[in-house]
Design goal:
By secondary structure, the protein is mainly alpha-helical. The chain is built from three helices and no strands. Helix 1 packs antiparallel against helix 2. The chain is elongated, with a radius of gyration of 19 Å.
Amino acid sequence: MKIAITLILYAIAYLWGWTKLRGEGRRLQRLWFGCILGYCAYINLCGITRTPHVSLSLLYTAFFQPVGRAIIYWLGG
């Protein structure tokens, strides 16, 4: 039930945003809006179902954190 309500609210937000982005030359903005809203829905649904998800923090923990530790170790800290 929670998932259905969440998807309905995201669909309403998408339709409302789509109508606000009317006019010539707004095609790319609509695409970006849809991508961002879709990613937000994905993160929200993963939080509801408690499944692992891909996010920007994954890039930090997978790459930058080990590199930072290696640099600190290399500098003698």
